[in-house]
Amino acid sequence: MKSFTISKNDSGQRVDKFILKTFPKLPKSLMFKEIRKKNIKVNRKRTDAAAVLNEGDIIELYLKDDVLEEKVKHYDFTNASKKLDILYEDENILLIDKKVGLLCHPDGNEYVDTLISRVKRYLYDKGEWTPEDSSTFSPALANRIDRNTGGIVIAAKNAEALRILNEKIKSRDIEKCYLTVVHGKMDKESDTLTAFLSKDTRKNKVTVSDKETGNAKKIVTKYRVLDYQNGNSLLEIDLKTGRTHQIRAHLAYIGHPLLNDGKYGKEQGRYRQALYSYKLVFNMKNAGILSYLDGKEFKAENCELIHNFKENRYT
Length: 315
Description:
About 20% of the residues lie in helices and about 30% in strands. It has six helices and 15 strands. It has helices spanning about 15-20, 30-35, 115-125, 160-170, 245-255, 305-310; strands spanning about 1-5, 40, 45, 60, 85-90, 95-100, 140, 150-155, 175-185, 190-200, 205-210, 215-230, 230-240, 275-280, 295-300. Strands 5, 6, 7, 8, 9, 10, 11, 12, 13, 14 and 15 form an eleven-stranded mixed beta sheet that branches. A hairpin with a 2-residue loop joins strand 12 and strand 13 (about 230-240). The longest helix has 12 residues, at about 115-125.
């Protein structure tokens, strides 16, 4: 028999979802059978597979040990770097200024030293989180930025914060502004560009057109010129739609590709495109435990892209 007290991060889940995540060796059919036989109980009472668990609930499983082997938790994150540029932190979220070159999540070449691993190590070292805190939740990133782009990434410290952030990002209630350096001088000091974007998933590349064809989706990109230097333009970008590679492809389409963009620009083989997600604005009305963030604005003050532009490193 095993017994669990439901934590804050495990609350809000269905009984069956929690059990299957916690005990991956337990067959689903057997779980439903044992629930019907009252061998799985919540607060010492008969439960239903679809019942929602609350913080403090006690779930008991009167089953054989061989099917109650818990999911193994790995601690690879303790080998990640401690370097983390934190812009803001409270009990629910972290805002991190991710530098160019750092992956948000593991890929085929890098597994250990990623942004999410650094976040986990930071919270683990503080004593604010351990893998034992929750069977089904660990600190997570609510948004991601490509390896070769820098900028602000939001990390959630608990399941409720992550759920709200995901909803607000999807509804575009969290506004993201970017800085970029492009080739040439813009015709207008500011403009709102519209076009249509098609994605080739196999090639991980997009194309932009003035016409809506096939699976093309409308894109809207608003820009404002901040400075000119050495034949290049420093722009602030306000994304009105958020499509894959939208800024890079849209600006290249109008004849002003990003500097060092080997995929859509002039510098073949270079993949350190001059792009930085430097500002977030939170519109968080009716956002539950995150409502206190409503109206707050955060900027990456130590932005590498601005330093490089001012020091004439883009030539």
